[in-house]
Amino acid sequence: MAEKQDPVVSEKAVADSGSFVDDHKHRSTSDADSVLANSEGVTEHELATLRHVRDKMPWQAFSIAAVEFAERWTYYGTTNIYNNYIRAPLPPGSRDGSVLPQNRLIGVAGALGLGQEKSFAVRTFNTFFVYVTPFLGAILADTKWGRYKTICIFTVVIFLGHIILVGSATPSSLEHPQAALGLLVLAIFVMAVGAGSIKSNVSPMIAEQYQGKLRKETLPSGETVIVSPSITVQSIYLYFYMAINFGSTGAISASFLARDNGYWVAYLVPTCIFATVPIVLYFGRNSYVKTPPRGSIVLETFRVIGLCLSARATFNPVALIRDLRRPGFWDPAKPSYYHGSELPAKITWDDEFVGEVHRTLSACKVFLFFPIFWLCYSQIDGNLGTVAAGMTLQGTPNDLIQNLNPISIIIMIPIFERGIYPLLRRRGINFSPIKRITAGFFVAGLAMVYASVLQHFLYKTSPCDNDQPSACTDADGNPAASPINVWVVSGPYILVGMAEIFANITSLEYAYTKAPVRMKSVVMAFSQLQTALASALNFALVDVNVEDKFQWLFASFGITATLFAGLFYWTFRDLDRAEIQLNLIGTGERAGFAGEREEGHSEEKN
User: Fold this and answer.
1) DSSP secondary structure string, 358-409?
2) Where are the domains of the chain?
3) Superfamily for 52-288+357-590?
4) What is the pTM of this model?
5) What's the confidence (pLDDT) of residue 167?
6) Is the pLDDT reported for residue 288 higher than 70?
7) What is its main location (predicted)?
8) What is the per-residue pLDDT for 324?
């Protein structure tokens, strides 16, 4: 939301966040009675004392959420069955990966038969690439095409990738496993370029559809409340994430389609669903709030950082860190720092842009803790599916269980948005983004401890005297499972779902609200890059991502995530205290209006 800067706040946009908090503590009483800039008559005193509620959400946001629903259906409807597709061999008598009807109570679908380690490596490559490519879409959107056009172009790229994927799983392709694997990797590459480039733009575009301002409103009960844009954006992202997880449940049908009809059918269905995305985008084209490209923002950002670093160049790391934290670090990049002809020719920006770069980097620091969160999430994305394969299935496909994660999120989001969060606000409890992310890390750690304990008992109860329950078979070659029912593994999936509500949804909200308008896609891409970094760490852990070491792998992630929860809150506790004031920082005249339409669509929003 592009808001003109409040003079009291904007001076701190380029200051250290800690000094901003200290300065805010000592504001005068008269400041409390001043009207906040670009609000509709709201004073600081009213902001601090009245209850905050969300505004109505625009229908355009739900339209974009429908696009993400279809995209996530196609993504999870394919990736959730990669584990069995790559790991397990073709079932007896099968040419397409399906299980014969008489074996479906105990059988597991499969195709390439490359084993757990290669399956893990390919799936990790897929996750890594999907979350690296958001920078491509972010740069193209912010500098050349705008978000809407970027999304439209890369939907075509994703569709082409799905066609290749279907071709890789046909019976004729599976007769040549190496060729099928090559087509699979090509499909993953193409779809990752498209999906990643969309991800960095859909998230900010959905929130841009709301253009409300901070205002007071009297409810029918007579209570005066603050209608808060930040709470509205929080709710938008909660329901946006709900749409994502509705789409994720497409993997439920994929598991049964693969088991009963083969993998090419399982991949064809999401391909057909994705064909609806261009239709939705076309019919909404004249109603969306669109942010036009802003020029070479990324290049200018690196130039600003380079100027400031060169002015403090030193080989002493301690001195460098001290200089980075010292007020005035950003001055050498400001035009006002120079006099007349001394201004370097490379400076093509104003002082406000330097402040925006600092604000952007301050927002990005929060995301640096997220790789450990995504390492925990990666375990439910594949390894726990292998855990489930060694348990009593009773006709349940082992890769079906992971759909409990999106289902639990769908159930819990309305409870949090309508019940828990409003209750906390009514009681005056500020469950801020920093606190929510902290809670997310703690719950993710708890999920991994649960998984570690479960794996311990699975080793003890497996009929085979080894540490690979998923590979245990009887004398006839049929799966021989532990007596533990497969639904016991649901605990980590549900707990990680709750952790996502606390941490991941909040990270989307944080990336949008704390980033300057012209850098929102780049900041969103940086937040998603943390998933790629987690995948890169997973590559380094390939040797321990094997079934006989799952117990200690899960336990180590659980302990680390819990420690990171405390470290995260301790690091960002000052930002937590200044949450409301940080949300009031504007974006300045140079950035323009967030709701500005792209060229050719300058009319008012319907």
Assistant:
1) HHHHHHHHHHTTHHHHHHHHHIIIIIHHHHHHTEE-TT--GGGGGGHHHHHH
2) 52-288+357-590, 297-347
3) MFS general substrate transporter like domains (1.20.1250.20)
4) 0.68
5) 92
6) yes
7) membrane
8) 67
